[in-house]
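Example record for the data management plan.
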Amino acid sequence: MRRFALCVTLILTLLIASGVQAQTETPTPSPTPAATATLSGDMLTVQISNGLDDVNESDGTLTADAAEVWVGNGDSVEGQYLGLRFRGLSITRGSIIQSAYLEFYTVQEQWIAISAVIAAEASDNSPAFAQDSLLSQRELTATQVEHESNSKWEAESWQPFDEMAAVVQEVVDRSGWRSGNNIAFILKGTQASGDFGRKFFTALEG
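Corresponding structural encoding:
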């Protein structure tokens, strides 16, 4: 059985380990990210490849064409979502995910408290986001991770999020999961950071 460790960014980087291999270089953001997944040793890196795959939903309205996307909550603490969909993941069913985390690239300095619950869509092959297929309408994994932070994001920096290997593991253990399928991660803003708490990072369109 192959063992995987996974890191995710608006790049999704998978450490596919029998021998876990650390990421040695910080990815450089590109205005035209590659649409393919590349395997290097035990690491698989996949970048968001379509503007419809990094989206926000606020109170039932989907935004899919902004230069920046955000994580956290906004004018209300209900109905605030970030969706990230990664396509064509070369992970065989039942592979062991040793590590997984989200990482975002920000062009601006930011310091505000944010909080969110991190989950994946409970789907064998996540379909595209759309106004008639909202983040809030999707079934989520039972395994979820709570994020809460109040830290400074430096301008032009990569910002890692929480370890979430168990979230990815639940998806790739599904009976219908196949190598080449898609995973969607959905982050729902919560009230832990207060009535307003958003941080912004570069979308594919940026």
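Summary line stored alongside the record: Confidence is low (pLDDT under 50) at residues 18-41.
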